[in-house]
Design the sequence.
């Protein structure tokens, strides 16, 4: 498949959500205690987060500050992309280093739908797409898909299941667009060619492949009027090509991560959930090698944890969301350079073994009071 992507990630590598969720007020103390069990020294740990820019990511950041006793370094770009060029400055900021990466998705407990988040600061506290960056990235692909859904038709002609395809969708020399895997839809002739049985002004009619007919059922092919293919245009029947920037960690990095998986993403029940989950998987796979190679992390202990943030829309009286974390994988390196990766069940087990009590946590309100009362420092401008 001629895909404009460098992602080789296998999207079907199992990411479990069921039984894997942990609220942030439980996850972060467990993570802190796990760090201590790995001989991270209290007071010498510099946490960092690679989160999206949304306000919904604030509560997790506050919990990190509270339990690690310092405001975390920022490793995040929109959509939950890890800014690996910030490893360099992060390394010297602590003796022991932690990076938490998470893409995120909104959840509305009233409708039980993923992909939306209540914005309490808007006039009517409206729900809008979350993650917005991912939603915006999917738009072009969803439009292309909707066009194809409307412009491929199925019908039964003389007891033969036929498929009529718009000419634009058949043009192979396009640079961008939705391209069909013709072998999944059309029955080839004896020379293994996909030859139409009829040419219309803007489309061609083919005999549908028996595998396609049996996958969607003969009843989808009506004898009277051709019907649009609609939801029967499944993820295995098409792929996308798009000319996008190949800049590593550039504005289209998220799109580049998702391009090969877009058919799976946009045909799923909750595209924003599947996209966020895939992005986390791809970012972990990409980022851990950059940590291995990073000079400023050498001779230091580093723990990198990746997962998915599920932002539960706040009720009217709540200031913060009840964000849940779904751990995906972790990487740990000790100060001698030995390293281990933890797959999802192992990571979950490592976290669950830890206490949710953290005697080292700070009282943020006290800390703010303390700063308010601290003696003012006059900045000396004489040497300017
Ligand atoms: Zn976002």
Sequence:
């Amino acid at each position: 498949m001629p895909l404009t992507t460098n992602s080789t990630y296998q999207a079907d590598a199992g990411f479990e959500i069921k039984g894997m969720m942990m609220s942030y007020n439980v996850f972060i103390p467990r993570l802190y205690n796990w760090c201590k069990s790995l001989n991270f020294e209290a007071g010498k740990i510099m946490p960092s987060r690679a989160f999206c820019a949304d306000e919904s990511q604030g509560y997790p950041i506050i919990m990190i500050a509270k339990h690690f006793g310092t405001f975390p370094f920022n490793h995040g770009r929109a959509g939950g992309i890890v800014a690996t060029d910030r490893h360099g400055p992060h390394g010297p900021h602590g003796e022991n280093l932690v990076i938490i990466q998470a893409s995120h998705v909104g959840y509305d407990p009233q409708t039980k739908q993923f992909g939306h988040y209540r914005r309490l600061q808007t006039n009517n506290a409206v729900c809008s797409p979350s993650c917005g960056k991912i939603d915006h990235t999917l738009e072009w692909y969803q439009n292309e898909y909707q066009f194809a859904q409307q412009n491929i038709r199925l019908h039964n002609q003389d007891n033969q299941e036929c498929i009529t395809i718009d000419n634009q969708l058949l043009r192979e020399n396009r640079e961008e667009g939705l391209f069909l895997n013709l072998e999944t839809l059309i029955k080839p002739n004896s020379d293994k060619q996909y030859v139409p049985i009829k040419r219309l002004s803007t489309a061609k009619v083919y005999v549908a492949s028996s595998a396609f007919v049996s996958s969607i059922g003969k009843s989808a092919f009506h004898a009277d009027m051709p019907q649009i293919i609609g939801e029967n245009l499944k993820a295995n029947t098409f792929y996308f090509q798009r000319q996008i920037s190949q800049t590593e960690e550039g504005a289209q990095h998220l799109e580049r991560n998702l391009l090969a998986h877009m058919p799976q993403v946009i045909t799923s029940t909750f595209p924003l959930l599947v996209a966020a989950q895939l992005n986390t998987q791809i970012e972990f796979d990409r980022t851990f090698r950059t940590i291995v190679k990073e000079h400023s992390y050498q001779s230091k202990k580093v723990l990198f944890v990746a997962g998915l943030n599920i932002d539960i829309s706040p009720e009217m009286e709540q200031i913060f969301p009840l964000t849940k974390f779904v751990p995906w994988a972790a990487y740990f390196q000790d100060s001698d350079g030995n390293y281990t990766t933890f797959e999802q069940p192992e990571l979950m087990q490592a976290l669950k073994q830890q206490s949710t009590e953290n005697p080292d946590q700070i009282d943020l309100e006290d800390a703010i009071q303390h700063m308010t009362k601290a003696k003012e420092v006059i900045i000396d401008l004489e040497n300017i």
Remarks:
- The first helix runs from residue 24 to 37.
- Residues 140-241 form one domain.
- Confidence is low (pLDDT under 50) at residues 1-9.
- The chain has twelve helices and 19 strands.
